[in-house]
Amino acid sequence: MNEILTLTWKEYRNNIHLLVFAISVLALPIIWATSITLLNARPEATYADMLAAGMMFGSVGSIIFSQFVMLCLGGHLIAGERGGRTFEFLFLQPVSRRTIALSKLLFAFVWSVATWLLVGFIAFCGYMLTNQDNGPAFDFVNSSFFVEVAVVGLLLFATSWFASSMLNNSVVSMCAGAFASTCVFIFLLLVVRDRFEPTFSFYEYDWTRILIMFPISVTAIVAGLVRFIKRKSP
Amino acid sequence: MSTVTQTETIAMSPKPMVPIDVEINGLTKAYGDTIVVDNLSLSIAKGSFLGLIGANGAGKSTTLKMLAGMLETTRGSASVLGTPIEQLGPKELARIGYVPDSHQIYRWMTIHEAVWFCRRLNPNWNDNQCAELLKLFRLDEKKKVKSLSKGMLAKLGLALALSHEPDLLFLDEPMSGLDPIASEEFLDGVLKTVSQRDCTVILSSHSIDDVQRMSDSICLLHEGKMLAHRQTENILHDTKCIRFVYDGNAEPPTLPSTIRSRNDEREWLITVEKFSPLMLEKLASSPGVSCVSVEDMTLEEVYKDYVRGQS
Amino acid sequence: MKVNLKSSKPIFQQIVEGMQSAIAGGVYKAGERVPSTRDLAIKLKVNPNTVQKAYEELVRSGVLVSMRNRGKFVAKRAEHSATKQSELAIAEAFRNGVDIARASGLTNKKIKELLDRVIKASEGKAIA
Predict the structure, then answer these.
(1) Rounded CA gap, A108 and A69, in Å?
(2) Partner B contacted by A20 (CB < 8 A)
(3) Distance separating alpha carbons of residues B59 and B38, to the nearest angstrom
């Protein structure tokens, strides 16, 4: 346990630039909302309305960016260390490959759950602040999209993690992960096209997508893990 | 004229039944068609110091990496501290220290953090030893790894590798590119620790002087092949260069255990691995041979002759 | 004491001879403790096993006495035997020179003359 915590601390410090990038991107909606409010672009609207509009608008950006950050993280966790040749140092420490891989996954898990909740929180604030009289607001946290964000994020992470266990360059593994995920999305679109009919409801989640994406992600993560443990050379 | 790869089984220590720490049997590493380490066999007794000499690309680093379990082997087997290298786990790694030529410690770490990190992961970490080494190397704990010079980094690597009290120490060209003072301090650090405990060391280097000073036995590698594995004290004693003038039409007489033979007009220089005065007598009595003399060689010359004798 | 890496003499042999001449020369007196294996190894920058071997050799030839846990000491009357050993080593060095001279076809008389010249030159140097 001691070892896992130490290694997770190392992951945190090693990926701190990615963390700072993610936090600043996720914080964008708050900055947008505040600046729109202060600039008071629409004099007839209330401050709360302005703030809400900013949050709602910005949360779309933060959702997209949070997905992108998941891709970066998966690609960077293994291949990043291989590219920087720090594995040589790490592998000489008396810890098993399994422990190293688990600490990486633990870090990724804490990170992604935190990101997911933060994205939800921003969207929720926007929704709460919206004056319902001004028009319909979208309750993101209560919608099936909230689940979708988590599952798509997981898929993006899993594919780039798997790619990163095979390749030596984090950028290449990110690209490979993005490509693989896109293939899965296209496949989904072809298979469950009927579900995207106009009758599709925002508030009822379509479980077929989870049933397809979730097993693929788990398989990719486990395959990456095994590949990492089996591969001897750093 | 060239000699076949010579494997000499030698007793490393006068005491019999010394436990063997590293046992290598036909170890081979190939990348596609390129063979980097070719059928290497070697055994190293506990507490002895082995020097690996070879040019860049001779397969020194690859061998050490395989022994530390960081590279897959293509053929052959090896065991380290009684464990086959395929099965090296945390328990064995805790007993191995490794200092690579360019140490890639996380650049964002401070020295203090690097020490803390290794200390948390190594069960038998020795704080006193670590503090002593950091003091000896004048390493400031507040400094960041990325701000360290090459020499400082090598010393930090050594301090980290020695502080968990390894039974087996791999030094993979740790002193290449270090200034003379830094490499002397580095050697001091190694000697201080090695003399304290019964530690087996493999030092790979192309600084032949350092290897000669430090090692009990020397292994000469060239293009992945082992040319010789001899005890340091014997190598210069036995290997001599015999010089003579030959005036005849046929080929000059050959000598047993020749490593390399070359001539300049009528002057012949033959390097033999196992010199004996008998050779001289026999040579002097051969027809056409005159002015026989023996010359001592430096280890560097011996190494060069082994390599050149190959081609 | 210094180690000469260019010499074909094994390092441990060099340490043995160096120690003998140090004792003969009065660097270490009878009954005094000599540097520990570790200290000497660090000082000479050689493998401790090599120093250990040299010390064992010196103990065997009676120059040093080993006392358990207390280190190695210069034996009584070691100076005498050390001088003798030292002389042997010097004779060996002369022999090398004589061998070279023989190989170049010098006669015994010529060699003796040469040696006298060398001695004279060395004395001159010492006075200067």
Answers:
(1) 11
(2) no
(3) 9
How far off is chain B from C41, nearest CA to CA, in Å? 7
DSSP class of residue B248?
Answer: -
Helix (H) / strand (E) element for B221: namely strand B217-222
Both tokens of A222, joined, read 């486990």
Number of cross-chain residue pairs from A and B with Cβ atoms under 8 Å apart: 63
Please name the member of A13, A88, A95 whose beta carbon is closest to the beta carbon of B121. A95
Chains that touch C (3 or more CB pairs under 8 A): B
Tokens of B73: 């082997």
Chain C contact for B296, CB < 8 A? yes
CB contact A10 to B (< 8 Å): yes
Any B CB within 8 A of A232 CB: yes
Can you tell me which residue has the tokens 């600043």? A24
Token digits of residue B54: 């070879």
Return the DSSP state at B5: P
CB C58 within 8 A of CB C49: no
Chain B residue nearest residue C50, CA to CA:
B216
Which one of A230, A232, A233 would you mutate to disrupt binding with B, by most B Cβ within 10 Å of its Cβ? A232
User: Is B236 within 8 Å of B253 (Cβ atoms)?
Assistant: no
Q: CB C50 to CB B216 under 8 A?
A: yes
Distance CA A100, CA A88 (A): 13
CA–CA distance, B137 with B75 (Å, rounded to integer): 40
Q: How close are the terminal C-alpha atoms of chain A, in Å?
A: 24
B-chain residues near C50 (CB < 8 A) = 216, 233
Residues 6+ apart with CB under 8 A from A219: A158
**Partners of B200 in the β-ladder:** B168
**What is the per-residue pLDDT for A204?**
64
pTM for this one?
0.81
Angle between helices A97-129 and A2-14 in degrees, nearest 10: 60
The C-alpha atoms of residue A68 and residue A65 are separated, in whole angstroms, by 5
CB contact under 8 A, A86 and B104: yes
pLDDT in tens, B128-159: 989 999 998 889 989 999 898 888 888 899 99
Q: Give the closest residue to C75 by CA, choosing from C25, C20, C36.
A: C20
Q: Are C74 and C64 in contact (CB under 8 A)?
A: yes
Q: Summarize the confidence of residues B184-212 as an average pLDDT.
A: 86
DSSP H or E run through B227: strand B225-231
Closest Cα in chain B, distance from residue C128 (Å): 33
